[in-house]
Design a protein that fits this description.
Blueprint lengths: L38 H10 L6 H80 L3 H19 L2 E4 L11 E7 L9 E6 L1 E4 L2 E4 L1 E6 L1
Helix pairs in contact: 2-3
């Protein structure tokens, strides 16, 4: 009889199964403990992935900010200069328009005055003749008042009459109609005013017609 070998297991020799080590818990991707944009955490994250901080790269990235600021300041100065030029151009335009409007108004007044002045001259001659023949009547005083009102209206428009009696003759303001000797008058002075002149804002509108003493 063949004796079968029986394998006996020693209970002390059998190793008990060891528990598997716990796997490290994965950190949540968007957990509240991870702060994005933190340089320290970024450096640690870069170190774990084999990346290391580059001071030169950081220096170059920081150097772009002053350049961008300088460009923005230059553009702002350019806009400011443009706005100032446009404002100066507008002021010049407005001043030029005001001057042209004033000149046009003055030309209109001068044109109207030149049409009215002969009528005033005729009125003055008529009144002078009436005074010589009929004296100072009430109706004559009334016509003189109307004449004064017309002259005052011209004065409010800048038109003033002038009669240079006894003044030195000035060809810029006087028109000599005759030249003759006058007793008691200095030669070259106005001895008689034949027709009074008018000025518009200081500019001669019509020269005075005078007789000059020799």
């Amino acid at each position: 009889m063949t004796e079968q070998a029986t394998t006996r297991t020693d209970p002390e020799a059998v190793e008990e199964p060891r528990p598997a080590p716990d796997a490290p818990a994965e950190a949540p991707e968007d957990g509240p403990s991870k702060r994005h944009g933190d340089p320290l955490l970024d450096d640690e994250e870069g170190s774990r992935h084999g990346e290391h901080p580059d001071p030169e790269r950081d220096r170059q990235a920081g150097g772009d900010q002053p350049d961008a600021l300088a460009a923005a300041e230059a553009r702002a100065q350019e806009y400011l200069d443009l706005a100032q030029r446009k404002q100066a151009e507008f002021e010049n335009f407005r001043r030029r328009m005001n001057q042209q409007a004033a000149q046009a108004e003055e030309r209109g007044i001068a044109k109207l005055a030149k049409e009215l002045l002969p009528s005033l001259d005729h009125l003055e001659l008529a009144l002078a003749s009436a005074e010589q023949h009929s004296g100072e009547g009430e109706w004559l005083k009334g016509v003189r008042l109307v004449q004064d009102e017309l002259v005052a209206a011209l004065g409010r428009a800048g038109i003033e009459p002038f009669a240079p009696f006894g003044e030195p003759f000035d060809p810029n303001e006087h028109e000599a109609v005759a030249q003759q000797p006058f007793e008691g008058r200095e030669p070259g002075t106005v001895a008689e005013v034949y027709q009074q002149g008018y000025r518009l804002n200081g500019t001669v509108l019509r020269p005075a017609r005078v007789v000059v003493a020799q």
